[in-house]
């Protein structure tokens, strides 16, 4: 894979199709990077960046979201960020708020599990 091919992998469909676009293209790319953080890299390494961008732009293809790797709130956030209608994607302000809620819920769940453990001496 050539370095010049890499941007296509993270490109929002509307950019690939050469349509007008706004800030939501960064939201789309952010979600792809977040997905790869959970996956440990791109999920479709066998395809070229151009093939991937083409499928995303013309077939609404998105990376798979394994139920084993992704907590449900993260799956929902990724789906919102990948929405085919750019106007339906959240802003980064909304994303940050959602991530803060997800973090707080995780901390609360972690604390709940820690205080409910019984230790046998």
Automatic annotation (TrEMBL):
The keyword Transferase applies. Signal peptide: none annotated. Pfam families: PK_Tyr_Ser-Thr. SUPFAM superfamilies: Protein kinase-like (PK-like). One of its GO terms (molecular function) is ATP binding. Keywords: Kinase, Transferase. PROSITE patterns: PROTEIN_KINASE_DOM. Residues 1-102 form the Protein kinase domain. This is Serine/threonine-protein kinase STY8-like isoform X1.
């Amino acid at each position: 894979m050539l370095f010049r091919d890499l941007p296509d992998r993270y490109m929002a469909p509307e950019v690939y199709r050469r349509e007008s676009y706004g800030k939501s293209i960064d939201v789309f790319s952010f979600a792809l990077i977040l997905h790869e953080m959970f996956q440990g890299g791109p999920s479709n390494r066998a395809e070229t960046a151009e093939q991937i961008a083409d499928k995303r732009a013309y077939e609404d293809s998105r990376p798979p979201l394994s139920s084993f790797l992704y907590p449900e709130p993260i799956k929902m956030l990724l789906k919102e960020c990948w929405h085919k209608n750019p106007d339906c994607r959240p802003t980064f302000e909304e994303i940050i708020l959602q991530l803060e809620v997800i973090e707080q819920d995780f901390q609360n769940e972690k604390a709940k599990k820690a205080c409910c453990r019984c230790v046998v001496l």
